[in-house]
Amino acid sequence: MEYRILGPVEVRTGAGRIRLAGVKQRTMLTALLLATGKFLSERELNRLLWGSRPPATCDAQIYNHISRLRKALGAGVITARRGPAYQLSTDGASFDLAEFEALAARGQVALRAGRWEDASGLLRAGLARWRGPALADVSEHLATPRAPSPGRRSASTRGRA
Q1: Backbone angles phi and psi of 80, in degrees to 5
Q2: One CATH from 1.10.10.10, 3.40.50.150, 3.40.50.970, 3.40.50.1580 for 2-88
């Protein structure tokens, strides 16, 4: 399985692209991916899907979106639930943001060591993961404050050297 958020949100398998039904489903998947294995509460999902004005049926809608996401992704992907929170398992999957961050970090190490060719190749490979603006087709409540950019490290890598 391959998850892509550095451009329009996509999920790919060896059989091709998995169709994700609509902005809410793409937002839900992306929020769970950005949580990097942590549980994401229904309250946070509500905020990311609807902002400060979630509908009265928001919890039921989240349950339905999770159910559809499980069906779309297949049995190999586990979306765990603990109380009013969800977690996506990405074991064995590739994730373009994580790949970009790893390549960028290795490129920075090569730069500091004066290995210019290595740095150039690593940084170019990292930038090649980008297919357009990150989170291009998710809700504005998720895209605006959390969108990664080539010059900004995500919360998952901030503080690491």
Answers
A1: -80, 155
A2: 1.10.10.10
Q: Check if the beta carbon of residue 101 is closer than 8 Å to that of residue 152.
A: no
| pTM for this entry | 0.83
Q: Over the stretch 14-60, which tens digit does the pLDDT of each residue have?
A: 889 998 989 999 999 999 999 988 999 999 999 999 988 889 999 89
Could you count the other beta carbons within 10 Å of the beta carbon of residue 113?
Answer: 10
Instruction: Report in angstroms the alpha-carbon separations of 161 from 23, 108, 117, 149.
Output: 35, 9, 20, 18
User: What does each C-alpha distance from 138 to 82, 113, 117, 122 come to in angstroms?
Assistant: 25, 39, 36, 29
Q: For strands 94-95 and 2-4, give the pairing.
A: parallel
